[in-house]
Amino acid sequence: MRAGLFIALIAAAWLGGGQVQEALAQTQPSASPGESRKASPRKESAPRKETRRSADPFTVGFVTGTPQCTEFAIARDIATTLASGQETGPHGEVALRVVPIVGNGGVRGVLDVLTLAGADVAIAPVILVDRLRDAKTFGDISDKLAYIAPLHVEEFHLLARPEIARLTDLAGKRVNLGEDGSAGAVLGREVLNRLGIKISESNLGPEAALDGLRKGDLSAALLVSGKPVSFLTQVSQLDGIHLLPIPYFKELLQQDYLPSTLRHQDYPNIIAAEASVDTIAIKSALFAYNWPIGSERYRLLELFVQTLFTRFPEFLGDVHHPKWREVNLAALLPGWRRFRPAERWLQQQSGGEAALRKAFGRFLEGKPTAKPPDREELFQDFLRWRERNPAK
C-alpha cells in the first residue's frame, strides 16, 4: 500500500511537470519579434508539497541541473565539503548530509522543491523563478519559496558549426535549446524571439546535442550554465565547433539579462589566446522550500544554513569551482524573502544581534524581577516572535 502511494505521488509530480513544460517550453519555432517579449505560462492549480516523514531526517535534498552543468558541480562541492568534519549522531548516523538530485536546471527543479518531500533546496535562475511567481503558474509561491542566498551568474554558451558566423545565420536552422523546461529552452527561446530570429527548435540533452553538432544534424546548441563548464572541455577546435557571440542589445535585453564575456582562460580548447566571445548571462540563487517554523525539515535546513554559511570561506579555494568567488552571501534578492535562519545568521555576523540585545536590555531596565537567566530566555522568545512576525 505504502509503495503504491509513493509511486502515485511521484507520478503526480511528474505529470505536473509535463503540464508546465507544455506551458513554458512549447516546441514551435521561435516567434516573430512582434510577439510577446516574455513567456506567458498558463496558470495551473497550485501543487501540494509531500509531507511524509523522511527516511533520513539528517539529509537535505539539493535539486540541481544536469551532471554536465556547473550548477551540479556547485551542489557537489557543498555535499562533499559539508560531509567532512561532521560529528555523528547517537546511533552513528551522519549529523548532516547533502544529496544532489539531478534536475534540468529549470522549471522541473522548482516544481520538485514545491512538491517532493525529500527536495529542500534548489539552484535556479532568478528570472525563471520570477516568471513562475508572476504568472502564478503554480499558484502563489511567494510564501512557499524563500531564498538562502544569491549565487553566481549563468552564461549563455551558444556552440555553432563552422558555417555559422553570426547569430542571424541561425534563421531557419535547427538549433538545440536544451531539454523541455530547462533554462536554455525557456529563456533561449525568449531571447531569440526578442532578437527576431526564427529557428527550428530541438530539445536534446548536452551529450546528444554535442553529437548532433559533430554530425551536422544541428547548426547550433545552447547551454546555459556558469563558466567555465567542464563539459565543454570535450569540444575541440578540431571539431570545427566554436562559440557564437550573442550581442547584448540593451533596449531588448537590459531588464532581464546581463552582458558577459567568455575568454581564452575560460575555454582554452575553443577560444584562441587573447580572443574573447561576447554573450549574455542571468543571475542564479539558492532557493529553499519555506517549511513551517519548528518543523523537522525547518530545523534541518536551519542546520544546513548555519553550516554552509559558517564554512563558506572553504569554498573560495582553488579546489572548488571558481564561480564560488562571485558569491556574496549578504546580497539581496529583490522581490523575495530570505529564509529566516539565513537572515538571522547574517544579522548576527553584522552586529544585528548585538544591537538587538542592547535595545532589549534598555527595555528591561527598571524591571528587577528579570534575573539574567530570565533575560536570556525572554530574548530568545523575542527572536522567535520576530521570525513569526518579520514585518514588525
Automatic annotation (TrEMBL):
Question: Could you tell me which Pfam families the record lists for this protein?
Answer: NMT1_3
Q: Mind telling me which InterPro entries this protein's record contains?
A: TRAP_TAXI
Residue stretches of biased makeup (Basic and acidic residues): 35-55
Q: Which Gene3D superfamilies match?
A: Periplasmic binding protein-like II
Q: Where is the composition biased (Polar residues)?
A: 24-33
Q: Where is this region: Disordered?
A: 24-62
Coiled-coil regions listed: none
Q: Quote the protein name from its UniProt record.
A: C4-dicarboxylate ABC transporter substrate-binding protein
Organism (species): Bradyrhizobium cajani
